[in-house]
Structures are given as C-alpha cells and as structure tokens.
Write a structure and sequence with these properties.
279 residues; alpha/beta; ProC C-terminal domain-like fold; 2 domains; 51% helix; elongated
Length: 279
C-alpha cells in the first residue's frame, strides 16, 4: 500500500493507458476507496468488470455514466482521445465535487484548455505516461496546473507510482519529456529489431536471433537497475581494451549516435508542437 491514501477515482475512457493504470491501482491495493471506469461499449467494459473494488460502466447502456463517475470521484482521469476531450470536460464540469483533481492522459491537450473549459476553480494536472505502464514499469511525467498544490501533486504522484516512476516537470517540458520516455520504448524496440537482423545475418535461426537480442536488452536493463551504476561505467566494464566489444563500440560511435538521437528527438518534439497547434 502507498503511504498516501487515495480518494475514490474515476477513469473516463479506460483504453490501453487508462486500463494499465487501473491494473496498477488494483494490484497495489491503492484503490481501496473504489474506482469507477467507463468505456463506450459493453465489450470493453466487461474487460474490467471482475476487478476487485472496480465498477465498470458501459456508456452504451448508461448515457449518464461519465457524469455519475465524475461526480463521485476525488480524482478524475481523462483517458479519451484528444479530440474528444473538450466535449467530455463540458459534460462533467458541472458535476465535479469541490476539490476534485482532474488529470489529463491526453497527449497534446494543454492545461489551459482544461482550465478554460472547467472554469477557474478547476484543479488540473497533466500527465504523460508511457506504454510500460502495462507491466508496472512506466515513466510518467506530471505537470501541475495553476491551482495544483503540493498536496495535489503528492496524491497524483502516488497514483502514478502504482505503475512505475514519476518525474514532475513544468508543462513547457511535457512535450520534450514525451520525446524521451513517451517515444523511448519505440527506440528500444527498433534497436532490438536491428540487433536481431544482425544475428540473422550471422546465420542464426530466427528464434535464436530473437532470443539473443531480446534477452540481451532485458538482461542489460535488469543489470543496470540492480547495480545502480552509471550506464557508461557498465559499458566500460564490458569493453575490454583491444577486445571485440571495443572494436564494435568504435563503429557505433563513428555513426555519431549522439547526433542521431538528438535529431530524432528534435523531430519528435517538432511534431508534438505541430499536433498541439492542430496541424
């Protein structure tokens, strides 16, 4: 159980990310005050129906489901697609309880948009979790709205710590954070893909190539987590002077990976700003 007791929670739009957070809440025991989740269809609602302490609502059967869920919650997570956010906020705004915290899971929707629609008394926090939330290993960025207090942020941090690590940043850094932790899993998967291809090129069977590449990344990450060492130091320990790894690292460094990653994340940041501007 977390040290910070969480109030009743509503997750409006429990898709892949909202569903992952729900699983983390239930597994951690942090949802003892109850969670109400909503989805459009009965089929999606049924996925969460058997979870302890969870009420799963299908909007096709209960058109007032979002309003009822929001009215009973101390923290309301907005998990619908970004284009659907304004309409949902207008729907639930009038029924929010005083002091309720509204947390955005929607990429590209600003705190200003939330506060403008919900009104000047709204307590808003913007979040940016990543997909490892589904296995409890997320990195979530949190940005405080204009009325969010340290107590607000402690509650929201406790919620997201049920699915991983949390970084608090100003909203101006949320898009930049998304280019590192948000998009980052895709970069890792791409590197695993390419190392697998290299193994295939060396004559290994596909199952052997995948096992070697995937388990090497998983093992290296586990070693990094367990050791607490700087990754550069761990790399040096693997890289014997005049050995095979040193030769391979030299080739990788000649490819200027620092510049490649800087340009890749710059490109992602430019696109995030385009999306925020409606492009």
């Amino acid at each position: 159980m977390p040290d910070t007791a969480l109030p009743p929670i509503a997750i409006l739009g429990a898709g892949s990310m909202g569903g992952a957070i729900l699983q983390g809440l239930v597994a951690s025991g942090a949802a003892s005050a109850g969670v109400v989740v909503t989805n459009r269809t009965a089929a999606k609602a049924d996925v969460h129906a058997g979870l302890e302490g969870v009420t799963s609502v299908a909007l096709e059967a209960d058109a007032e489901g979002n309003r009822a869920a929001a009215a009973g919650a101390g923290i309301v997570l907005i998990g619908v697609k970004p284009a659907m956010v304004p309409a949902l906020l207008r729907e639930i705004g009038p029924v929010l309880r005083p002091g309720a915290i509204v947390v955005s899971l929607a990429a590209g929707v600003t705190i200003a948009t939330f506060e403008q629609i919900l009104g000047p008394q709204a307590i808003v926090v913007r979040s940016m979790p990543n997909t490892p939330a589904v296995v409890g290993r997320a990195v979530t960025g949190l940005a405080a709205g204009t009325r969010a207090t340290p107590e607000t942020m402690a509650l929201v941090r406790a919620l997201f710590e049920t699915v991983g690590a949390v970084v608090e940043v100003p909203e101006s850094q949320i898009d930049a954070l998304s280019t590192i932790s948000g998009s980052g899993p895709a970069y890792v998967f791409l590197l695993i893909e390419e190392l697998t291809k290299a193994a295939l090129g060396k004559g290994f069977e596909e199952d052997e190539a995948r096992l070697m590449a995937e388990q090497t990344f998983i093992g290296a990450a586990a070693l990094l987590a367990a050791s607490g060492e700087d990754p550069a130091e761990l790399r040096r320990r693997v890289t014997s002077p005049k050995g095979t790894t040193e030769r391979a690292i030299a080739v990788l460094q000649e490819a200027h990976l620092d510049d490649v990653f800087a340009r890749a994340t710059d490109a992602a940041l430019a696109r995030a700003r385009e999306l925020a501007a409606g492009a």
